[in-house]
Amino acid sequence: MPMTPLENRIISPGRPPSVDSDPSLPTQLKVKVNCDGNYVTLVAAFNITYQSLVDRIDAKVGRFSSNAISQGTMRLRYRDEDGDFVTIESDDDIQIAFQEWRDSQKQQNHQGSLGEIELFCLSAD
């Protein structure tokens, strides 16, 4: 039986799921990225790597901007529980951002739904 193009798709590997995963929380997250007032959205697994996330964001942002995280002209950030911007530069940083999101959602029932986190692309200067 010949393989269809869909079966040939390669999905980039992520990190193994964390041991403290809560089955009542979603396994994927809608990532809403605010880039100077323009928004791009994508769905990412909780175990996505930094490079994979940056590649996907850069591809979407590239439709309306010449800036890119991978070029160093923008920085990827999230807002922590105190409202401060924290720069994301590694797989560990992404996991910390997602873990803070999980911790903030423990009080709510998201079973079967897709959670949403807001990230920010800010100028690197």
From TrEMBL:
Supply the PANTHER family for this chain: CELL DIVISION CONTROL PROTEIN 24
User: Domain PB1: where?
Assistant: 28-108
Concerning InterPro entries, the annotation shows: CDC42_GEF, PB1-like, PB1_dom
Example GO CC term: the record gives: nucleus
Q: Where is this region: Disordered?
A: 1-25
User: What's the protein called, per UniProt?
Assistant: BgtA-21113
Return the PROSITE patterns for the record: PB1
Q: Which GO terms describe its biological process?
A: establishment of cell polarity; septin ring organization
Q: Which organism is it from?
A: Blumeria graminis f. sp. tritici 96224
